[in-house]
Amino acid sequence: MEIQVLEQSQQKILFSLSGAGHTFSNNLKHELYADEAVEVAAYKVDHPLVSLPTFIINTNGKKEIKKILTDTVKRIKEQNAILLKAIQ
Questions:
Q1: In this structure, are residues 55 and 33 in contact, taking their beta carbons and an 8 Å threshold?
Q2: What is the percent of the chain where pLDDT is above 70?
Q3: How many other C-beta atoms lie within 10 A of the C-beta of residue 13?
Q4: What are the structural domains of the chain?
Q5: What is the pLDDT of residues 71-80, one digit of tens each?
Q6: Which of 29, 43, 54, 61 has the largest CB neighbor count within 10 A?
């Protein structure tokens, strides 16, 4: 999965995710809201066959966006590990 940053400021980021579909994008969006610094987290896919998910995240500025994203991905990894262990 690759992130391409399209626009970034201190409180806002717009990026696309190659190699991601609705499953991961919905999970990421949902988990972003677990961070109190996130005010808006949304994504869109212009066309399901030829477009990449494009995310927009707005924050209150109390935390760096990079830190928010890395913390969110860590939580998703932990949840996936728990699920995998339960399945096995």
A1: no
A2: 100
A3: 20
A4: 2-87 (3.30.1360.10)
A5: 999 999 999 9
A6: 43
Which of 19-23, 29-33, 36-40, 43-47 comes out lowest in average pLDDT? 19-23
Write the single-letter amino acid at 37.
A
C-alpha to C-alpha distance for 87 and 37, rounded to whole angstroms: 33
**Coil, helix or strand at residue 56:** strand
Helix (H, G, I), strand (E, B) or coil at 62: coil
Residue type for 10, please? Q
Q: Is 62 buried (19+), middle (13-18) or exposed (0-12) by CB count in 10 A?
A: exposed
46-61 pLDDT, tens digit per residue, is: 887 778 999 999 999 9
Q: Is 9 helix (H, G, I), strand (E, B) or coil?
A: coil
The whole-angstrom distance between residue 7's C-alpha and the CA centroid of its chain comes to: 15
